[in-house]
Amino acid sequence: MHQGKYLLVPNTPVEICVDCGMIYYDAAVLKEIERRFFAIHQQNEMPDSYIQIPSKSYT
C-alpha cells in the first residue's frame, strides 16, 4: 500500500519457515513488486486487471 493504493500480486513466490510459519519474500521479488507498483501508479505499465474493494469506515 502506498498513499491509499494497493497492488495485489497473486502467485508471489515466498519461503515459509517450517518452525514458526513466518513468510519471507526474496529481496529481488520485493524490488520487482515495488517497481511494478510505481510503474502502474505512474501509468508507465498497465495492470493485468482492476478490482473494486468495498470499504467501510469503523467510525
Summarize this structure briefly:
The chain has 59 residues and is an alpha+beta fold. The protein has one helix at 27-41, and strands at residues 15-16, 23-24.
Structural class: alpha+beta
Head-to-tail CA distance between termini: 21 Å
Question: Which descriptor suits the 3D outline?
Answer: extended
Query: Strand order, biggest sheet?
Result: 1-2
- What profile does the largest beta sheet have? 2 strands, antiparallel
Total E-strand runs: 2
The proportion of strand residues reads: 5-15%
Oligomer: single chain
Structural features, described:
- With 59 residues, the protein is of the alpha+beta class.
- It is built from one helix and two strands.
- Strands 1-2 form a two-stranded antiparallel ribbon.
- A hairpin with a 6-residue loop joins strand 1 (15-16) and strand 2.
Topology diagram in text:
Elements: E1 15-16, E2 23-24, H1 27-41
Antiparallel strand pairs: 1-2
Task: Please supply descriptive tags for the structure shown above.
59 residues; alpha+beta; two-stranded antiparallel sheet; 1 helix; 2 strands; 7% strand; extended
